[in-house]
Amino acid sequence: LLLYISTRLEDLRIKLENEGLFNISYVVVNHQGAQSQRKFHRLKESVSNYIAVYQQEEQQDDVWTTLNGNKDDFLIYDRCGRLVYHLGLPYSFLHLQYVEESIKIAYCENKCGNCSYTEPDIDDICENITKNADKLAEPKPTGQHSHHHNLHRHGHHH
């Protein structure tokens, strides 16, 4: 499953670059379990060198526990390292638009004023993205109650 996700993430990375969104860092965090560790090299080979693959050690504190998340979550940070979105299942499925749109919004937001990390000449690209941002609506969970913040917008209190 993770190999499928990493391939889809690579496709998304290429798509965003083709749309003009550069200098985005991507990191895949591999599970701590022995089975996941055995598949680490296959996972690393499934993505380009533009996506880092981080292998947790079995004895270290679990990254997902530290980040208050689960292994299938996407945590999206802005260019200053502040958590902007934390997407859990089902919103983290890459065939849906939530991860892509969240990355675009985090890329284009200018919450803190002028930023030395902002890419030059992104105004036109971001103008189109912010026009579409209002279309990112949170679907209503069906069936069982979920206490996990599936699509959660974080303020800049990090």
From TrEMBL:
A GO cellular component entry from the record: extracellular region
One of the GO biological process terms: selenium compound metabolic process
One Gene Ontology molecular-function label: selenium binding
Keywords assigned by UniProt, alphabetized: Glycoprotein, Secreted, Selenocysteine, Signal
Source species, domain of life: Eukaryota
Entries under InterPro entries matching the protein: Selenoprotein-P_N (IPR007671), SeP (IPR037941)
Subcellular compartments: Secreted
Protein name: SEPP1 protein
Organism, scientific name: Formicarius rufipectus
Gene designation per UniProt: Selenop
